[in-house]
Amino acid sequence: MKKIHVATGRPYDIFIERGLIRHCGEYIRKITKSEKVMIISDSNVFPLYGETVRQSLEEAGFRVYTHVFLAGEQSKTLDTIAEMYHSLIGNSFTRKDMVVALGGGVTGDMAGFASATYLRGIDFVQIPTSLLAQVDSSVGGKTGVDLPQGKNLIGAFWQPVAVLIDPDTLDTLTPHFFADGMGEVIKYGCIKSEELFSTLETQNAKEIIEDIIFQCVTIKRDVVEHDETEKGERALLNFGHTLGHAIEKEHGFTDISHGQAVAVGMVMIARAGEHHDITPKGTAERIARLCQKYHLPVTDNTPVENIVKSSFNDKKSTGSAVSLIVLDKIGVSRIFSVEKSAMLSFVTKEYV
Ligand code: MG
Question: Fewer CB within 10 Å, N or C, the chain?
Fold first, then answer.
């Protein structure tokens, strides 16, 4: 079992262990005096793990309630949140009770947001079951919900009281969803760890996934501890994301996953960095090769003008400039501000 302590305003521990989901109740019992727990999960994940989690919680002495919503990003709405509130209030949940978010990123974000706001905040535990959620979204306390105008426009910083990661749940992921998470895994190597990056190059991530998750979560923990509410360093986690988000948006969030779009974004921005003598030559190619090894795309046929224009609406862009993350080399990243008016030429110089 691996344990990572996160010293945020409300500190908590992240546990990584194969088979952990079967005894999650024991872990949760140790960190709460709650009597009641609401498992919030979606219609894909609950049938796979819901009963295992319920049983373990009951064995640990909890009264267990469940709330299952329809799986998919299209459920990530305030209406779905309202239904969660109704379940909580309908079962007389008080501030002493607790939510368990069981599932991927959408579930964690929404159950987290419901927990952050119900009665001005109740405890919640994350049990992430997708690679993306295990290495990224379950750690760091960002919770949120989409608006018709954009993704995650409503939300709160609300740290979980524990994160329980069971790598065995990845066995039920399709290759598509595994690749989706690998986009973020590769990102961690790019921004903070040349060692992780070369491990991914020389080995098969799937075979050593417990260690890979540990490395990624440790990197994210370090960044989040320094900058809990994204005032500075946390922006490094957005490497590949400014253009990646724009690509997702241009696709209408339909036929390209987050990890796929981030892979394309990472390669584009590394290439731009090379053309402006920020990033050593050959870096973009190295990232592209690694993305392809893990079945991620490295190009997209959306016109680059459209990608750049879409990136201006990113909620992380401020005023007349866009804060991009660039690589000084693999494993070393920094914030680099580009005027919106210069953004297209910054990104497309390679095409000239
Ligand atoms: Mg991401």
Answer: C
